[in-house]
Specification:
Chain lengths: 234, 404
C-alpha cells in the first residue's frame, strides 16, 4: 500500500468561521494506480492532494505513506521524502521563469544531491520522454503552454518518484493540447507503472484514469473504477 | 544542492535586476572605497616616516639629548660624565648611547640689514649647497680647505646690497665672522615645505661651510650631545621623556644647566595625528555608509523574496529544505555585497593613487593584502548580517500558501 489515509479531517480557520475542509477521508492508493479526483472548485481537492503530497501536515487522523506517518517529521526529513517520492505537476506549470528548461527539470536531481554534470543526461532523457528533445536551453517563455506543461511533467518524473501528483494539469490548456498531455500521463502509467494522482474538474479528463474518486464539500462521495470502454479517445 | 549551483543562481538573480543591484551596491562601493583609500594613504605615510627617520646606515631610529649650561662660565666642565651615560643606557628602549659634540646643521641668527635686525636661517654644510641663480655653489672643497665663503638667498642679497649682482663678492657676517658671498640662491619661501623639512633640506637664507664655522665656535661646544640609538619598536618620544626625567633629577650637571631632547619623529607624529583623525573620520563616514548600504541590501532582499515567492514554493516542492532556501538568499545577499566590495576596492585604489599623485603629497599610497582582505571581509559580513532576516523570512514561508 503506497498511500493510506484513515479518518483524516482537516479544518481551516478563516476569521471567526471554521471550515471543515476534509471530512473523515478514508483512502487507499496502490502502487501503479492512476487515480482521478474530481469535484467542483472548493470541494477540497487541493487540500487533499497537498496532504497526500506531503506539503500540508495540519490535519487530524492518520496518513501513512509507504507505511510511515510523517506528521511529526521535521522539515529536513519531509523535504527529503518529497524530493525522493513525489513529483508535482501544477495547473499553471510553475516553471522558474528565468531558468532554462534544463535548469528547471534538473532541480529535483540537484536537490537530491546530484551534480549538474551527472544530472544532464537524465534530464535530456526525461525531455525526450515528454517529446521535447533539443529545447533544453530555451526559457519557459519561449514555449507554448502545452510545451511548458510537458517540461513540468519531465520535471515531475525526472527523479523517478513513487508517485506524481497532477493538480489540474490541463486547466490552462485547450482541448487538443489537453488530450496530448493526458496521453503522456496515460503512457507513463501504462508503460512504466508510475502511480499518478490526478485532480481535475473536467469529466473528460478524469476518464484517462483507472479509478475515479468524486469529492464534494470535503467528503468522498464516490470511489469507483473507470470502465474500460469509457476511456477517452487514445 | 551544491554550493557552486546555489552561487550561480544567486549571480543570475543579481544580474537579472542590474539597475536595482547597482543602486543597492552603491553604498557598499562608497564605504569600501573610502576605507581602502584612507588605509592605503595611511600605510604609505607610515612607511615613508619609518624610512625617513631611520635614514642612518644601521636603519635604526636615533634621538638626541642636548645639554645647555645656564651660566656660560661653566662651559669648561664636562656636560655628561660616565655615570650619566650609564644611567641613560639603562633606560628601556635605549640600545646604545654615544656622546658627541653638537654640530647643528642649522642655526637661527640675527643679522643687521639696513638698520634693522632681521632673523635669518644659517645652514652649515660639509658638501655642496643647493643650486644658485648667480655665482657658484659651495663645494665640498670649500669645507675641506676652510674657504670663508657663503651662498645667500636672493631676498637677503637684495635687502643687503640692492640687487643680486651687487651682493656677489661682498661680505656677510655670521657669528662675528665675515664670509665672502660667492653665490645667490633662489629666494627662500616663508612657508616651510613639509617634505623638504623631513628630508633635511630646509632652504636657508645663508649657507656656509661647516668646518669654517666650527673653527670659530668649537670651544663652546664639546661633548654636549648624547645620541641614543633606540631599540626596535620603542617610541622615541617616550624614551626621550624618560631619559630627560632621569637626567634632570640625577644628571651630573642638572643643577648647572638644562637638558633638552630632539625627537626626529615629533614632526611625523604631528602629521600622523592629523592623518589618524582623518582616518577615524573617514572610517566613521564609511561605517555609516556601510550601515545604510546594509539596510538597502536588506530592503532589496525582502523585495526579491516577495517577488520570488513562487520560485521558493517550486523549489520547496521539488525537495529544497528550509536551509537550502535560506542559504540561497544569504548567498545572494553576500554575493551582491562582495561584488560591491570588489568594485569599491578598485575604486579605493584609484582614489588613493589619485591622491598620492597630487603634488603636495610627499609620499605614495601603499597597498597591502590587509586592505584587500578588509574590503572582502567587511563586504561579506555586511551581506551576511543584513541578509539573514530576509533569508529567514524566505525559508519560513508557508509552503501551502505559496504553492497555489
Amino acid at each position: 500500500m503506497l498511500i493510506e489515509l484513515k479518518a483524516v479531517n482537516k479544518y481551516y480557520q478563516n476569521g471567526d468561521q471554521q471550515f471543515h475542509v476534509l471530512q473523515d477521508i478514508n483512502l487507499k492508493i496502490d502502487q501503479g494506480e492512476f487515480l482521478s479526483i474530481m469535484g467542483p472548485s472548493g470541494a477540497g481537492k487541493t487540500s487533499l492532494i497537498n496532504l497526500i503530497g506531503l506539503i500540508d501536515r495540519q490535519y487530524t487522523g492518520d496518513y501513512y505513506f509507504n507505511g510511515e506517518s510523517y506528521q511529526q517529521a521535521n522539515d529536513n526529513v519531509l523535504a527529503r521524502i518529497r524530493n525522493r517520492s513525489v513529483g508535482f505537476v501544477f495547473q499553471n506549470f510553475k516553471l522558474i521563469a528565468n531558468n532554462t528548461i534544463l535548469e528547471n527539470v534538473e532541480l529535483p536531481l540537484l536537490y537530491g544531491g546530484l551534480s549538474k554534470r551527472a544530472a544532464r543526461p537524465i534530464v535530456e532523457q526525461a525531455l525526450v520522454r515528454v517529446g521535447l528533445a533539443d529545447s533544453s536551453h530555451k526559457l519557459p517563455s519561449e514555449l507554448s503552454g502545452g510545451q511548458q506543461q510537458r517540461v513540468a511533467i519531465a520535471r515531475a518524473l525526472v527523479h523517478q518518484p513513487k508517485f506524481i501528483i497532477a493538480d489540474e494539469p490541463t486547466g490552462a490548456l485547450d482541448t487538443k493540447t489537453s488530450a496530448e498531455i493526458m496521453q503522456i500521463f496515460r503512457d507513463l502509467n501504462q508503460r512504466e507503472g508510475t502511480t499518478i494522482v490526478l485532480v481535475t474538474h473536467d469529466p473528460q479528463v478524469s476518464l484517462y484514469g483507472d479509478r475515479l474518486i468524486k469529492i464534494l464539500d470535503g467528503a468522498i462521495i464516490a470511489d469507483e473504477p473507470v470502465k474500460e470502454g469509457s476511456h477517452a479517445i487514445q | 544542492m551544491r554550493f557552486s549551483e546555489v552561487w550561480r543562481t544567486a549571480l543570475r538573480s543579481i544580474l537579472k535586476n542590474k539597475r536595482r543591484s547597482i543602486l543597492t551596491m552603491l553604498g557598499i562601493v562608497i564605504g569600501i572605497a573610502s576605507v581602502v583609500a584612507i588605509l592605503a594613504i595611511g600605510d604609505g605615510f607610515s612607511n615613508w616616516v619609518t624610512k625617513s627617520i631611520t635614514n642612518n646606515k644601521a636603519g635604526k631610529v636615533e634621538t638626541q639629548i642636548m645639554y645647555s649650561a645656564n651660566d656660560t662660565a661653566n662651559t669648561s666642565s664636562q656636560p655628561f660624565n660616565e655615570r650619566d651615560l650609564m644611567l641613560v643606557g639603562q633606560v628601556t628602549g635605549v640600545a646604545k648611547v654615544k656622546q658627541t659634540s653638537s654640530d647643528d646643521d642649522y642655526a637661527q641668527i640675527s643679522l643687521a640689514v639696513k638698520n634693522k635686525t632681521k632673523s635669518v636661517l644659517v645652514h652649515y654644510t660639509a658638501g655642496k649647497s643647493s643650486s644658485v641663480l648667480v655665482g657658484r655653489r659651495l663645494r665640498a672643497v670649500d669645507n675641506q680647505i676652510g674657504n670663508q665663503v657663503a651662498v645667500i638667498d636672493a631676498d637677503l642679497a637684495s635687502s643687503l646690497y640692492g640687487s643680486q649682482a651687487n651682493a656677489l663678492h661682498h661680505g656677510v657676517e655670521v657669528d662675528g665672522q665675515l664670509y665672502e658671498i660667492v653665490g645667490i640662491s633662489k629666494a627662500v619661501n616663508d612657508s616651510v615645505n613639509f617634505s623638504a623639512a623631513m628630508s633635511g633640506e630646509i632652504p636657508a637664507n645663508i649657507t656656509i661651510p661647516r668646518k669654517v664655522h666650527q673653527s670659530y665656535t668649537q670651544s663652546q661646544r664639546t661633548g654636549d650631545l648624547l645620541t641614543l640609538s633606540l631599540a626596535k619598536g620603542s617610541k622615541a618620544s617616550k624614551v626621550n621623556e624618560q631619559v630627560l626625567h632621569i637626567l634632570k633629577t640625577q644628571g651630573s650637571m642638572h643643577q648647572q644647566g638644562d637638558y633638552q631632547s630632539n625627537d626626529p619623529t615629533a614632526q611625523a607624529d604631528t602629521f600622523g595625528k592629523v592623518l589618524n583623525a582623518i582616518t577615524y573620520f573617514v572610517s566613521a563616514v564609511a561605517g555609516i555608509s556601510l550601515f545604510i548600504a546594509g539596510i538597502g541590501v536588506m530592503n532589496m532582499m525582502y523585495i526579491s523574496v516577495a517577488e520570488r515567492t513562487t520560485e521558493i514554493g517550486i523549489r520547496r516542492a521539488m525537495g529544497a529544505r528550509q536551509q537550502d532556501i535560506r542559504r540561497q538568499f544569504l548567498l545572494e545577499s553576500a554575493t551582491l555585497t562582495i561584488l560591491g566590495g570588489f568594485v569599491g576596492y578598485g575604486l579605493g585604489v584609484l582614489l588613493a593613487l589619485a591622491i598620492s599623485a597630487l603634488p603636495i603629497m610627499p609620499f605614495h599610497a601603499s597597498f597591502s593584502f590587509g586592505g584587500f582582505a578588509l574590503a572582502f571581509g567587511v563586504s561579506t559580513v555586511v551581506g551576511l548580517v543584513f541578509g539573514v532576516m530576509p533569508a529567514n523570512a524566505a525559508s519560513r514561508k508557508d509552503l501551502i500558501e505559496i504553492i497555489r
